[in-house]
TrEMBL record:
This is NADPH:quinone reductase. InterPro entries: ADH-like_N, ER, GroES-like_sf, NAD(P)-bd_dom_sf, Zinc-ADH_QOR/CCCR. Residues 10-301 form the Enoyl reductase (ER) domain. SMART domains: PKS_ER (SM00829). It comes from Streptomyces bungoensis.
Length: 304
């Protein structure tokens, strides 16, 4: 099968296409014929080697862990799924490939009204958003500040926080202000003067901060909170030195919750935005865009 592989750590130039063995599912696993793959910032961090302490990687490796596709083969003991089922979820093996293995327990049915690319945009972002909102204990009536509100994670986090009854202030680039507003947040431009801009519209302060951007907003967040309590980042590796919680995992991978949100996405009740798609062969280009910090929604690889 075709797969994207890296044999050494480094920049996107280490990624290359290769022919690899089609994997065979073990007990409790299924093999998925991959149709779309979510590209996540962690993919590039693992490829670069900076995540070795958290995610040790055996080389050569195939990146990725977020898939949408069709069940192709069943391992021993799998119930509730059959060959031909359309699914989305998390893979056990590298997802930048024509086939990947996944635990049946972490796959959700793909609704007919949800296309492949938007299905692949949902698992990691929805899981991360739920997990951080729970860490922050966001409640109805509270004010939550989200940095990176226009990205894949921020897009989902804004909507789930609003659904909890929170007032959300979302930071994004000037080009994404209307988009963030459309998600239900009060949009603000990030960068110099942010503290004053937030205080102007929330003079009573913010109750919690979710940093999904990793663009140096933690100091402003501490100023706005008056300390480090109830600030969580998923993107800024300076968190520990500043006394901030870094939410690196583990993922919950709830198939039931994913199925619920997939239905909402299919009906239009939950917005999933795909910023750009790339064929599998252009995985290096997609990771470079991800490494550089793209502006809106999810980057997705499509697999023939």
């Amino acid at each position: 099968m075709k797969a994207i592989v890296f044999d050494t750590f480094g920049g996107t130039e280490v990624l290359h296409e290769a022919e690899t063995e089609v994997p065979e599912p073990g007990p409790g696993q299924v093999r998925v014929r991959v149709r779309a793959v979510g590209v996540n910032p962690v993919d590039g961090k693992i490829r670069s080697g900076i995540m070795e302490a958290i995610f040790p990687t055996t080389l050569p490796a195939v990146p990725g862990g977020e898939i949408a596709g069709v069940v192709d083969a069943l391992g021993e003991g799998v119930d509730g799924l059959k060959v031909g089922d359309e699914v989305l979820g998390w893979s056990d093996t590298g997802a930048y490939a024509q086939y990947a293995l996944a635990s049946a327990a972490v796959l959700a049915p793909k609704p007919a009204g949800l296309d492949w690319t938007h299905a692949a945009a949902l698992p990691v972002a929805s899981d991360g958003a739920d997990r951080v909102l729970d860490l922050l204990d966001v409640k109805a009536g509270e004010t939550l500040l989200i940095h990176g509100a226009s990205g894949a994670l921020g897009t989902i986090a804004v909507q789930l926080a609003v659904a909890r009854g929170a007032r959300v202030i979302g930071t994004a680039s000037p080009a994404n202000q209307e988009y963030v507003t459309s998600l239900g947040a009060t949009a603000l431009v990030y960068g110099d003067g942010l503290v004053e801009r937030v205080r102007a519209i929330a003079p009573e302060g913010v109750d919690a901060v979710f940093d999904a951007a990793g663009k140096g907003a933690l100091e402003d967040s501490i100023t706005l909170r008056g300390g480090t309590d109830r600030i969580v980042t998923t993107a800024d590796f300076r968190a520990a030195e500043l006394g901030i919680v870094f939410a690196e995992g583990p993922q919950r991978r709830s198939a039931a919750r994913l199925a619920e949100l997939a239905q909402q996405a299919a009906s239009g009740a939950l917005v999933t935005t795909v910023g750009a798609t790339y064929p599998l062969a252009e995985a290096a280009k997609a990771q470079q865009v991800s490494d550089d910090g793209h502006g809106r929604g999810k980057l997705v690889l499509t697999v023939d």
